[in-house]
Structure formats: C-alpha cells, structure tokens
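User: What would this chain look like folded?
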Amino acid sequence: MRSLNDSKTTVTLLAGLTLVGALAGCSTTTPDAGTDSSKPAPAPSAPATADSGASTGSGTYKDGTYTESGSYQAPSGTETVDVTLTLAGDKVTAVEVTGHATDPQAQKHQGEFKDGIAAEVVGKSIADLKVDRVGGSSLTSGGFNKAVDAIKADAAE
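Assistant: Here's the prediction, encoded as structure tokens.
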C-alpha cells in the first residue's frame, strides 16, 4: 500500500508543478534585467507623436530647408519616405513628406501619414522631434524619424 500512496503523492506533486509552470507562462509582465520590479510600471504614453515644444536637446540648428530620406520595414518590404523640414529658431515651420511606396497598402499608409504630419510637427522644436503614429500609420514614422535624425545632423551648428 505504501508504494501506491507514494505514486499518488508523486503524481499530485507533478500535476501541481505543471499547473504552476503553466500559470507562470501566462504572466503578463516580467521584469527586465536591471529593473526594480517593486516599482509600478510607468503609464503608457499617449499615442501622439511629437514633443511638446520644450527643448531638452543641447543643439542649436541653422535656419533653412533640409531634405533627407528615411527607410522603414513594412510587410511589403523596405519602404522609403523623403522628408523636407523648414527650420527657423530651432522650430519646424513647414514639413513635406513624399512617399515612394509601390505596394498599395503602404501607399495608403504613407498618404495618411502625409495628411496628418503637419499638425503634429509644425511649431515644435526640432531638438526632440520624434513621432510614433500619425494618421493611423505607425510604420511610416520609422522612416520619418530616421530622416529627421539626418536633418538634425545636417542643420546642427
């Protein structure tokens, strides 16, 4: 009888461990290395897109009009956008985005991005300019941000 009870205990123990492992696998958050898991996670930022206009960057930029290209990865492959920014007093005074997508879905998203970008960046400081999602398009922002980084380098004094 002793071996039957030992078998039941072993099976129960294994079942419990399996359940604990399965529940741990369903966990929604895991602390990254070097983070304090006792602190609450920061609130997600708004889906908006550009800085508030307050510059935390250390650079000063030359006034002028600058054009650069930026590429990004889309489901259809690598896509590219040309970005033209006009700067005055370290602020964006005008923006133009030209898309070069050949895929119809990417063309649609680039068009949505192009239609909404001026409202997000005109009047903002170039120093901290970065967008996440514009006009429902989130991937195009990757190419835009790369082009802006190149423009910052071009315009830096």
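The longest helix spans residues 2-25. If you want, I can go into more detail on any region.
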